[in-house]
C-alpha cells in the first residue's frame, strides 16, 4: 500500500521529524498532567497515612462492583484505542472509525456507571457538606474521592469528544489519512487517562476490604 | 506509511495481562496483608502502568529523547511524593 502524504509544514524536514516532534510535544503535555494528578495522589497518600484505619473504613463505603466493572471497561477501551491507532498506521479507515467509535462508546459506558455510583453516594449521604453522614475523617476521604474521580471523569469527557470528532472526520473523507500524528496523540492521551484510573481504583476502592 | 509498532496479537496479550493484574489486585485486597497492603497494590498498579506505557503508548520503540521525556514526568512525581511523604511520616502524626 502506498499513500501520498501532504507536504509537511515549513519548519519540518520530513514527515518522520514532524511525527517525532508531535510525539515529544504530547509527552511534555502528559508530564504536566502527571504532576497535575500527582499532586492530588500525593496529598491523598499523606491523608491516608495520617488517618490510617479510619480512612480505610470510609473507603469501604464505595461500590466495589461498579469500580471493578469500570476498571475492566476502561482497560478494554485502552485495548480498542491501541487497535484504532494500529488501524490508522496500516491505512484501514473503516477499522479505524469502528475502533475510535467503540473506544468512545466504552468511555461513555464508564461515565454512565460513574454517574450511577455518584447517585448512590448521594442517596447514602456520602457527599461532603451539611448533609454528610459520617465522621470528619470519612468526609475528608469522600472529598478526595469526589475531586479525584471528577477530574478523571472530566478528562474522559474531553477524550470521548476528541475520539468522536476524529471518527467523524475519518469517516467523512475518502482521501488518504493525511497525518497519523493526531490519532497517535489521541491514543497517548486516552492511555494516560487509563493509567490515572489504574491508580485510582486500588487507592479509592480497595483499601480496608479485608475487614 | 508508518510502520505499526506492535502486531494486534501483542496488544491482545497486553490487554489480557492488564485484566489479570486488575483481578489480582482486587483479590489481594481481601487478604489481610497489614502494612504490606498499600505497597502490594502500588506495585501491581506500577506493573500495569509499565505495560500500558511500553506497549499501548509505544514507548518501547520510541526515540531516546521521547523515553527521557516520558520518564521525566514520573521521575519528578517520585521526588514530589518522596519529599512530601517523608515529611508526613516523620512528624509523629501517624495513626496506628
What's the helix-strand series of chain B?
HHH
As a percent range, the share of strand residues of chain A is under 5%
Structural class of chain A: mainly alpha
Give me the Rg of chain B, rounded. 18 Å
Number of β-strand runs of chain B: 0
Number of helices of chain A: 5
Overview of this protein structure:
The complex is a heterodimer of chains A (211) and B (96). In chain A, 78% of the residues lie in helices and 0% in strands. Chain A is mostly helical. In chain A, helix 2 runs antiparallel to helix 5 and helix 4 runs antiparallel to helix 5. The model of chain A has no long low-confidence stretch (mean pLDDT 92). Helix content of chain B is 70%, strand content 0%. Chain B is flat. Chain B is mainly alpha-helical and 96 residues long.
Task: Name a few traits of the molecule.
heterodimer, A: 211 residues, mainly alpha, elongated, B: mainly alpha, 70% helix, 0% strand, flat
Compact overview of the structure:
The complex is a heterodimer of chains A (211) and B (96). Chain A contains five helices and no strands.
Question: Secondary structure elements and their pairing?
Answer:
The complex is a heterodimer of chains A (211) and B (96).
Chain A: H1 15-59, H2 64-89, H3 93-123, H4 136-172, H5 181-205
Chain B: H1 8-28, H2 37-56, H3 64-89
Helix pairs in contact in B: 1-2
Amino acid at each position: 500500500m502506498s499513500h501520498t502524504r501532504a507536504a509537511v509544514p515549513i519548519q519540518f524536514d520530513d514527515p518522520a521529524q514532524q511525527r517525532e516532534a508531535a510525539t515529544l510535544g504530547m509527552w511534555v503535555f502528559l508530564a504536566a498532567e502527571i504532576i497535575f494528578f500527582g499532586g492530588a495522589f500525593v496529598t491523598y497518600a499523606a491523608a491516608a497515612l495520617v488517618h490510617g484505619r479510619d480512612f480505610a473504613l470510609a473507603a469501604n463505603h464505595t461500590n466495589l462492583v461498579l469500580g471493578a466493572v469500570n476498571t475492566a471497561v476502561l482497560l478494554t477501551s485502552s485495548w480498542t484505542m491501541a487497535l484504532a491507532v494500529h488501524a490508522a498506521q496500516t491505512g484501514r479507515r473503516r477499522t479505524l472509525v469502528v475502533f475510535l467509535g467503540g473506544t468512545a462508546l466504552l468511555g461513555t459506558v464508564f461515565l454512565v456507571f460513574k454517574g450511577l455510583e455518584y447517585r448512590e453516594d448521594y442517596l447514602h449521604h456520602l457527599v461532603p457538606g451539611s448533609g454528610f453522614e459520617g465522621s470528619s475523617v470519612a468526609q475528608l476521604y469522600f472529598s478526595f474521592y469526589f475531586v479525584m474521580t471528577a477530574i478523571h471523569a472530566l478528562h474522559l469527557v474531553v477524550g470521548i469528544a476528541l475520539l468522536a470528532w476524529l471518527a467523524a472526520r475519518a469517516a467523512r473523507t475518502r482521501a488518504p489519512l493525511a497525518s497519523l500524528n493526531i490519532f497517535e496523540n489521541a491514543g497517548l492521551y486516552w492511555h494516560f487517562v487509563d493509567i490515572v484510573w489504574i491508580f485510582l481504583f486500588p487507592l479509592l476502592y480497595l483499601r480496608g476490604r479485608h475487614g | 506509511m508508518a510502520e505499526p509498532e506492535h502486531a494486534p496479537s501483542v496488544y491482545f496479550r497486553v490487554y489480557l495481562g492488564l485484566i489479570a493484574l486488575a483481578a489480582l489486585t482486587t483479590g489481594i485486597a481481601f487478604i489481610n496483608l497489614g502494612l504490606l497492603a498499600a505497597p502490594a497494590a502500588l506495585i501491581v498498579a506500577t506493573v500495569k502502568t509499565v505495560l500500558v506505557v511500553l506497549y499501548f503508548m509505544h514507548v518501547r520503540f520510541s526515540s531516546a529523547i521521547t523515553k527521557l521525556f516520558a520518564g521525566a514526568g514520573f521521575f519528578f512525581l517520585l521526588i514530589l511524593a518522596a519529599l512530601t511523604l517523608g515529611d508526613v511520616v516523620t512528624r509523629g502524626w501517624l495513626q496506628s
